[in-house]
UniProtKB/TrEMBL annotation:
It comes from the Bacteria. Signal peptide: none annotated. Residues 48-185 form the Tc1-like transposase DDE domain. This is IS630 family transposase. One of its GO terms (molecular function) is nucleic acid binding. NCBIfam families: transpos_IS630 (NF033545). It holds the Pfam family DDE_3.
């Protein structure tokens, strides 16, 4: 299981809390399954999703480059700070996924996203793991009946495998130069279309999730 997200651990991170989330997840899912069976004559299929947003823009994404020994790597870079946000969910066990484009981050956009996710998987109970961003917890949010939000500990992005999926997307975009934002959006759409469920599973189906999902 690879979880290198190429980012430093936050000083705010609580290591015990992060590890505790992994250990408690099977019991949480088992409790949700039990409640679902108690409240409904026929329990719905439970699906476990991982959710996040990422910023994509015209500023060049830089990555390491391989050159011959003694040759200094050179890459063209542009500094256009025009961007948009991609909201997404992935299901690590199946590779299913769903994405929407937005101009910014706020609870109104997140509300629209949740409503569309609800329609994407209408006949299931969709448990969505996500971070504790303020707009994820807005009092104005109306959570669809078939969605349950499961918040991971703060400052712990390594718990969410969609972070590695974002890294994959940005690696595909690295060193590319785009004149217009729509050109970048089209490229991202093409990448998302070509990514297979098998690839998503290989990137995101981490051991601790596999173990937890055995209960449901």
């Amino acid at each position: 299981m690879v979880q290198d997200l190429s980012r430093r651990s936050s000083a705010k991170k609580n290591e015990k809390e992060a590890e505790g989330f992994k250990k408690k997840l099977p019991n949480l899912l088992n409790a949700v399954k039990w409640l679902e069976e108690m409240e409904r004559k026929e329990s719905r299929k439970i699906r476990y999703w991982c959710q996040d947003e990422t910023r994509l823009g015209l500023k060049t994404i830089e990555r390491k480059r391989i050159t011959a020994q003694g040759v200094k790597p050179i890459g063209k870079v542009q500094w256009e700070f025009v961007a948009y946000y991609l909201y997404g969910i992935i299901e690590p066990s199946s590779g299913d996924n769903f994405f929407l484009e937005f101009s910014h981050l706020d609870s109104d956009c997140f509300q629209v996203f949740l409503e569309q996710v609800s329609k994407h998987s209408p006949n299931c109970l969709n448990i969505i793991q996500l971070d504790q961003g303020k707009f994820h917890q807005s009092k104005n949010l109306k959570i669809p009946e078939n969605i349950l939000l499961l918040f991971q500990p703060p400052a712990s992005p390594e718990l969410n495998p969609i972070e590695r999926f974002w890294q994959y997307i940005k690696d595909e975009l690295s060193w590319n130069l785009y004149e217009e934002l729509e050109e970048l959006k089209e490229e991202v759409r093409t990448i998302l279309t070509k990514i297979t469920p098998k690839t998503i599973i290989s990137l995101t189906n981490w051991d601790y999730l596999q173990k937890a999902l055995t209960v449901v």
